[in-house]
Structures are given as C-alpha cells and as structure tokens.
Amino acid sequence: xxxxxxxxxxxxxxxxxxxxxxxxxxxxxxxxxxxxxxxxxxxxxxxxxxxxxxxxxxxxxxxxxxxxxxxxxxxxxxxxxxxxxxxxxxxxxxxxxxxxxxxxxxxxxxxxxxxxxxxxxxxxxxxxxxxxxxxxxxxxxxxxxxxxxxxxxxxxxxxxxxxxxxxxxxxxxxxxxxxxxxxxxxxxxxxxxxxxxxxxxxxxxxxxxxxxxxxxxxxxxxxxxxxxxxxxxxxxxxxxxxxxxxxxxx
Length: 250
Known about the structure:
With 250 residues, the protein is α/β, with parallel strands linked by helices. It contains 8 helices and 8 strands.
C-alpha cells in the first residue's frame, strides 16, 4: 500500500490514470474509497492523485488539533514528495476548503481549481442533509466499494476534522486565489447553503458557478457522469500543455 511521510504523518495515496496531474481532496470523515466511482471517471483523462486526509482512512490520525491550513500543507507535502510541481485541484466539502487554502497560499502550484459542495467559511457547526446522512449510513454498512477494508474513523479524529472545517473562515483569502475556478453546488444543500457558495464565487476573481439538483455532495452520485463531464470540460483546454517535470521548473 503506497504511503509517504509528509511532515509528522504518513499519508496513504493512490494514483489512477494518465495525463495532466489532478489532485483530488475528499471531505469530512471519509476515505478515498467513497469517491472512487467519481475519481475513476476523471482518471480517463487525468493522472488522478487521491489520498486520505489527516485523521481518515489509512493516513495517520494524531490526537491533536487539526486545521484547514495544516491539511493544505499536508497536500502540498504530498505533491512535493511525489515530485508534482503544478496540478489541477478538485476539492469536495471540507476538501474544498483545503483546496481553497492551498490555492491561496501557493498559487504557483495550482493550474485550475474545482470546488464541489463547499464554501469559504464554516458556520461553527455541522448540519447534514438527508442525502449526506444516507451517504454516511452507506459507508457504515459497507455499501460503498472498499468500505469494509478500512478502519472506522476514531471519534477523536472525526472531532478534530469537524472542528477544523466548521471553524474555518477563508473569506479574506479568496482574493489571493488566481487559478481559474469552477464551483459546483447543489440547489438544496443544507450543510453549505447555496448563498455561501455564491459568496465564494464573488470572492474568487476568476470563477464561475453551476448548480445541480439535490443536496450536499449527493449530486456526485446521482448525476456522476454529468458532474465529471463538467469538470473535464472545464479542464479540457489544459490537457495538451507541457507540464513541468520537476519542482525546479516552476
């Protein structure tokens, strides 16, 4: 199983497909198996690097406070270790906040940014929509591919991730994001309401937004092909460019 040392933790990752590198950052409380059907579609056109965040899956789960900037640095450390100088980044829910912080802090490392079911600021608490609760139940019942292979997330690790995500406020950082950005959101998202996605769209200068039917993240399951096609279309013009092969080429 591929793991690499990044800072104070060992990070579990997988690479699928060939082409321009695409870093996929998952959400709160889940491991990379949850999004595998979606990342498999992206791997038709991109070299998709997907991994378990600090506190989830097969990545280490230290019992100490986490933060979104800390997890953004974990992501950058993984890119450095794998020799990826620049990449597209796709972030979902909490992963979208990680992606925004990464793009704001290290703009030279990001080509295009896709934010799914996320917003720049938390509310201080988590409110799950029915689809999100169903997704969590499916995970616990091992109805999602590969779910039975991994350990259940410890309560303390879930708490550290939850606190990091719900207390994050990256509103002031949005103007620092220079990457062209696509925001995909659900019209009935109760966890991160559409108004917060629109505020994120206003804060990122070169961004566009599109809404799908359903609730938080669930449209990635019910409309998976359409969502993946929209992401691919957004990144289409960048497939043929020459990608730097080393960090020195940034």
